[in-house]
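Title: Request for sanity check on MerR family transcriptional regulator prediction

Description:
We are preparing a figure and want to confirm that the structure record we downloaded matches what your pipeline produces today. Could someone re-run it with the sequence below and paste the raw structure tokens into this thread? We only need the token string, no images.
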Amino acid sequence: MSGEVWQIGEVAARTELSIKTIRHYDEVGLVVPSARSAGGFRLYTIDDVDRLLAIRRMKPLGFTLDEMRQLLEALDLVTSDDASAVELSTARAYLAACHARAVKACDDLTRQLSYAEELTEQLADFSQ
């Protein structure tokens, strides 16, 4: 393995995920570290960190662990040189559906944020 690797604490700081969450994603097979040190510590590459960041982005949009796994697999397929035409087509269709779902979730979150900001402004008038 070439390139820089990081231990879990460094990855937690880079991704703003807790060590417990990163370990959980390893245990469920979402992001398995690319290597282990001689002492058995998890070692993560930039690709592993990118996968964790993708998961972090999916979480507030309501994706389940299984949906996250499927989305990551679809992303892997569309960047693979070994995928068949059928696999590519299926992966792209799934990614398009995920994109539409993400757009809707962002719209919903934007509306909720607007409500929260309205309440914050309303309460500011009474807290001075």
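Thanks, this matches our download. The mean pLDDT is 94.
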